[in-house]
Each structure stands twice: as structure tokens, then as C-alpha cells.
Write a structure and sequence with these properties.
globular; alpha+beta; 2,3-Dihydroxybiphenyl 1,2-Dioxygenase, domain 1; 133 residues
Amino acid sequence: MSMLTLGVDDLARAVSFYRDGLGLPQLDSPPSVAFFTLNGTWLGLFNRASLAEDVGVPVGDKAAFPGFTIAHNLDSEQAVDAMMADAIAAGATEVKKPQKVFWGGYSGYFSDPDGYLWEIAHNPFVWIGPDPS
């Protein structure tokens, strides 16, 4: 797991809570989302309705969309496609076929056998892997 994204009702309130209240270090990000770096992973905050729209599920259906997603970032689009195929073969349900996305990366969603939503993504703007130094 590389990131947990919470769908929030009030992004400014949530940013204030995590940044100012908990002291998490906030990364530069567009105004519609907030990212915080944690020990080996990230926390993302995104408007709840926008996150549901990104996944392709109805926002009001708590069974289909509990308000968060788990993300796993990989080093290529091909790796995303391969992991999605492996997940489906292992019993996951494809929710959104991997595709180019608005933020410049490539991602898709599946739900695991218990219904938890996973985003499998390639972010060309972030190094994924061992420390390159």
C-alpha cells in the first residue's frame, strides 16, 4: 500500500485537522486534493463526491463506497494492467478499467472479495521503488 485516500465532506476543515491539528507534513498539491507524507506512505484527502465519481460509484451508497480508497502505485502502466489482471483472477471485481486519468497518470479500481476499493496506479511524477541514490 502506498496511499490511503479519504473522501471528505469539507476539504479545508480536513486539511486544517491533519496539517495544523496533527502536524502532518503537507505536500504541494492542486487545490482540489491534499497530500500528506507519512512514514513510507501518503495520506490523500479528496472531496467525497469527487472521489466517488473518480471510482465510478454512487456517493450515497455506503455499501458501494465507504468513503475511502487504498492505492497501490506501480512503476509502469503495464504493471498496473498486470496487477489488475492478477487481482481479477484472484477474485476481485473490476470497478474501473485502468486508463489514462485527469492528473496525468494511469489507474483503475477493483474491489477485493470483501468490497474494499483499491486503486492500482502509475504516477509518472513520483518515483516508486528503492531509493535511487
